[in-house]
Amino acid sequence: MPLTFDDLLTRARTLVRPGRRALLGITGSPGAGKTTLAENLVRELNGTGEPWVSHVPMDGFHLADVELERLGRRDRKGAPDTFDAAGYAALLGRLRESDEADVVYAPGFERVLEQPIAGAVAVPSTARLVVTEGNYLLLETGAWPRVRSRLDEVWFCELDEEERLRRLIARHEEFGKRHEEAVKWVLRSDQRNAELVAATRDRADLVVPVGELALKS
User: Fold this and answer.
1) Is the Cβ–Cβ distance between 88 and 147 less than 8 Å?
2) What percentage of the chain's residues is helix, strand, coil (to nearest 5)?
3) What are residue 104's DSSP bridge partners?
4) What confidence tens digit (pLDDT) does each residue in 42-86 have?
5) Which residues, in sequence order, are bridge partners of residue 21?
6) Measured distance CA(193)–CA(96) in Å, rounded
7) Is residue 217 included in any domain, yes or no?
8) What's the CATH number where 172 sits?
């Protein structure tokens, strides 16, 4: 039978065990629907009661533009080596600890500014499940394997390629790029990254056909 959103909710709930916080990773190529899936999961799992699920995107670990300029990587923003993968892994390790009595703060990412923002995401001590999403959760180079080792499961979002590219171009346009500029960026920088991510698909615990799910934007 086809995978349903209710199936995903059930699977996410079963990750949580008494006495420890669970971490669920959602990965996939740029524009595949990772954030939309994560936000739908968090919203539906939390329902109307006390929130027990938190969302911590990987995007907060983008290196700032000033550092990318220093490293000569500004024109490759979004590639694996333009993130603080070790810092991300360290945060996930901290989130796994069950004895955190206080709020854990994670960085966020401001898409209008295209910059990371420190302390923008609060994870309360009551959170028993953390959903995190990003492109490179299953990458096997650099510090990225440390990320995977801290996650209970990783799900891979899969979307029709034509639709994925359409959504990605539209996103770049929404945040300020002209159409021609958005297309050029998607087909050059984003596509290289997408191919790298697609090669990690077989390492996922579950492949999610995002286009077949009725998700709320």
Assistant:
1) yes
2) 45, 20, 35
3) 123
4) 999 999 788 999 999 999 999 999 999 999 999 888 899 999 999
5) none
6) 28
7) no
8) 3.40.50.300
